[in-house]
Design goal:
The structure is a single chain. The chain is an alpha/beta fold. About 25% of the residues lie in helices and about 35% in strands. It has a 22-stranded mixed beta sheet that branches. Strands 4-8-12-11 form a 4-stranded antiparallel beta sheet, with no helix packed on it. A hairpin with a 2-residue loop joins strand 13 and strand 14. Helix 6 runs antiparallel to helix 7.
Length: about 525
């Protein structure tokens, strides 16, 4: 190893000034040379030259030096200035620009920052001198829901301000074409420029996952998810799905609440007392129905039966089919098919058929427009049973309403006529105060309007009566009709006093006729 290697100066202690450092280094070199001469060790010429050059360099001026640093994203360039030595040139603007050019920094150079560096001279600090223009990332597509994905119980409020604990609002009913959610398309990114002048590419927006499930469709522009049919909207398996049938796997009780659904409803269990089912489609119940209410714009099918507890009600536009109906009210615009009816009020605008093991109609009343066929009507205990044939329930109700309205109009017209006659014969209308004069004019206008309304109602009443009297096609067919059964067909009524077997009853020539089979 050479002498220079052995006697290399140690690192300068922190805190010494530059002149002190030079002096110590010079003294150390001189001591090394003197020691070599005293020990008669020959110093290599290269070492002598090195020592001389070091000595010279310690006294030569050194200009300030600029180093450039760039962040990993190439969006910011920093300058660090090393101070001058031995009265070397201080930092100046051209020095920084030259360093930037050497590093190929050409974009976003901030002249204000350069001037600040020259003025402040922040030696040994990293100072930002150039900033690129970052790219703008594209925006991902987005789903904006129109309905909640997670359903929560929301009790309905009663009119009196109380809470209806039987209405839980667990169904989200939608019609075909209902907007389920809207979809925003992804937005493209905007490119930027780094400090080297190169284009910086941002992240492109991604299309959103569309939660399209069964019975849902996309709009033609792809920006809306629509209901493909009427039903219950559910969010299942990360997708919006329309269930055209609302299925209750248990009972209709406090856990389910009242049901109001725009499609079909299927109940695998029972329907408890006090609850209500409304459906625009069919209603099918596999268990028992207690004192509940079921309204359907389609058909009602009770696989077991119903005990209405004198408050239960069935109403359907289509057929009603049940094993038994007890202590309830049932109304259908079509046909009714049962095994037995006990103490119930029935309105049927089609045909009533009581067949099966019992095929019985016991107690209550049955108003049927077309025909009744049963195994037995009434009972051996002489329980009053009322049968009305040839009368549609809504016609009977409308006739009663029209009759009441006519009576009211006639009463008002009579009073109106008396008042007008008094004013016209005994009081000069011209001399009436302005308020009384207005009342008089209104009464004069009301009189012909009242007459027109009466004429319209009488015309409608005449049509209804004609329809109710047209009962020649109505038939009652039964294997046995027990005494004390009241039968009305058209305007004819009879109460059976004896047991009728295998008979057919019909209306003819203003009376109820009977034939046997």
């Amino acid at each position: 190893m050479s002498l220079i290697d052995k006697e290399r100066p140690k690192a300068v202690s922190v805190g010494l000034s530059l002149s002190e450092t030079r002096e110590r280094l010079r003294n150390k070199l001189s001591s090394t040379i003197n020691e070599s001469l005293h020990n008669k060790v020959k110093v290599p010429e290269q070492a002598v030259d090195l020592i001389e050059s070091i000595g010279e360099s310690m006294t030569e001026p050194v200009d300030a030096k600029v180093e450039i640093y760039v962040d990993h994203d190439k969006m910011t360039a920093y300058a660090r200035v090393f101070p001058p030595e031995n009265n070397g040139a201080d930092i100046h603007r051209e020095m920084i620009l030259k360093a930037l050019t050497t590093e190929n920094i050409i974009y976003g150079i901030d002249p204000i920052q350069l001037d600040a560096m020259v003025e402040r001279k922040p030696y040994m600090e990293k100072f930002p001198v150039a900033c690129g223009r970052p790219p703008v990332d594209g925006k991902d597509g987005e789903i904006i829901d129109c309905f909640e994905r997670e359903k929560s119980l929301k009790f309905a409020e009663k009119i009196n301000g109380g809470i209806d604990f039987k209405t839980l609002n667990i169904i989200t009913a939608v019609d075909t074409g209902t907007v389920i959610c809207t979809i925003t398309v992804p937005m493209p990114s905007l490119p930027g420029t780094d400090v080297y002048g190169a284009e910086a590419i941002g992240r492109e927006g991604k299309p959103v996952y569309i939660p399209q499930g069964a019975n849902t469709i996309l709009s033609s522009d792809g920006l809306k998810l629509l209901a493909g049919e009427t039903g219950n909207l559910v969010f299942r398996n990360n997708k919006f799905t329309i269930d055209p049938v609302f299925e209750v796997r248990g009972n209709v009780d406090n856990s389910i609440g009242n049901i109001d659904f725009p499609g079909d409803v299927t109940v695998l269990g029972d329907v408890f007392e006090g609850f209500q089912i409304k459906a625009k489609g069919n209603v099918t119940v596999f268990g028992r129905v207690e004192g509940a209410s079921i309204f359907s714009e389609g058909c009602i099918v009770l696989k077991n039966g119903m005990n209405g507890m004198n408050k239960g009600e069935l109403e359907a536009n289509g057929d009603i089919t049940s094993n038994y109906l007890e202590n309830c009210k049932a109304s259908t615009q079509s046909n009714l098919n049962v095994d037995s009816i006990v103490n119930s009020i029935i309105y049927c605008n089609g045909c009533l058929t009581a067949s099966g093991k019992r095929g019985a109609i016991i107690g209550g009343s049955c108003s049927v427009q077309k025909a009744i066929e049963a195994k037995s009507i009434g009972s051996r205990a002489n329980l009053l049973t009322t049968i009305v044939l040839g009368a549609a329930s809504e016609w009977i109700a409308e006739r009663q309403q029209i009759t009441d309205e006519l009576a009211e109009l006639e009463k008002n017209f009579e009073n109106l006529a008396k008042n007008l006659d008094y004013l016209e014969t005994r009081v000069q209308p011209i001399s009436l105060p302005p308020e009384r004069q207005k009342i008089f004019e209104a009464m004069k206008r009301e009189k012909p309007i009242n007459l027109i309304k009466q004429a319209q109602l009488r015309k409608r009443l005449e049509k209804i009566n004609k329809q109710l009297d047209d009962v020649e096609s109505s038939r009652l067919k039964c294997m046995e009709i027990f005494p004390h059964t009241k039968i009305t067909i058209g305007n004819a009524t009879m109460v059976t006093q004896v047991l009728y077997n295998q008979c057919i009853m019909y209306y003819s020539e203003g009376a109820i006729k009977t034939t046997y089979y």
